[in-house]
Automatic annotation (TrEMBL):
Domain of life: Bacteria
Keyword Oxidoreductase: yes
The organism of origin for this protein: Roseomonas indoligenes
InterPro entries reported in the protein's UniProt record: NAD(P)-bd_dom_sf, SDR_fam
Protein's name in the database: SDR family oxidoreductase
Length: 236
């Protein structure tokens, strides 16, 4: 699959699933721009490795994100991957931390996707990285996180209706436990994560990136407003 001549913009691309998506699209010939918030070293390394362009922009800063997307010009494939995970007893969770997660996971996804669609040509693609926990939440302490990922489902269904007439698709990729800094396969929560999985193995960021490329490819032109779960059966 080649993406030569296509411009890809990945929000939150310095590490984990986002970095795997940057690598895959760059290897497939796309011109890739990615944003990140804090991981300067990882971003620099990825730029050197892939030739992608990196922009240090907080996805939770609405106007800065909108300006960066607008200034990138027409984007063929927009990927919203940036995400925070705040968890714990909802009675004691810090409200500012929850608000910050909503800013990054929800507001950024909405305003970034809408802005990307403004100049997006027909055949364009929007992909947002949600979570299988939006469909099945077997653990306590994750209500606020799941709130943000469930919001992406509604957003995608709605924007599919707005953008369909322009031949632009929007889809949600819903990973399950995937080995990254956010959820390491050797971390303290890993054993519990494996419990609900039908295939008791953490996924890899590259597997999620492969699904992103499929949904951005020509054969997926009829898929929109849909959720695509890749979770080893966690939510089955
Ligand atoms: P990581 O924490 O490993 O990486 C997160 C990436 O997002 C980093 O590149 C980070 O950049 C970037 N990012 C975070 N906050 C911001 C921000 N405010 N502005 C711009 N970029 C930001 O996470 P994962 O790769 O594991 O997760 C990626 C997505 O997949 C998230 O949306 C997550 O919710 C979702 N997901 C992950 C699962 C898992 O098991 N790993 C399971 C289900 C869903 P920087 O370091 O520069 O801040």
């Amino acid at each position: 699959m080649t993406f030569s001549g296509r411009k890809v913009f990945v929000v939150g691309g310095s590490r984990g699933i986002g970095a795997a998506i940057v690598r895959r699209f760059a290897a497939a010939g796309a011109t890739v721009v990615f944003t990140y918030a804090a991981s300067v070293g990882a971003a620099d390394h990825l730029v050197a490795e892939t030739g992608a362009q990196a922009l240090q922009i907080d996805a939770g800063a609405r106007d800065e994100l909108i300006a960066a997307v607008r200034d990138a010009g027409p984007i063929d494939i927009f990927v919203y991957n940036a995400g925070l995970l705040v968890f714990g007893d909802p009675l004691t969770l810090n409200a500012d931390d929850v608000d910050r997660m909503i800013d990054v996971n929800v507001r950024g996804a909405y305003f970034g996707s809408v802005e990307a669609s403004r100049l997006m040509p027909g055949g364009g693609r929007i992909l947002v990285i949600g979570s299988d926990t939006a469909d099945s939440m077997p653990f306590p302490g994750l209500a606020a996180y799941v709130l943000t990922k469930a919001a992406m489902q509604g957003m995608a269904r709605g924007l599919a209706r707005d953008l369909g007439p322009r031949n632009i698709t929007i889809n949600v990729i819903q990973p399950g436990p995937t080995d990254t800094d956010m959820n390491p396969a050797n971390g303290p929560r890993a054993a519990g994560m494996l419990g609900p999985m039908a295939i008791k193995r953490y996924g890899t960021a590259d597997e999620v990136a492969g699904l992103a490329l499929y949904l951005a490819g020509a054969q997926a032109r009829g898929i929109t407003g849909a959720m695509h779960t890749i979770d080893g059966g966690f939510a089955a």
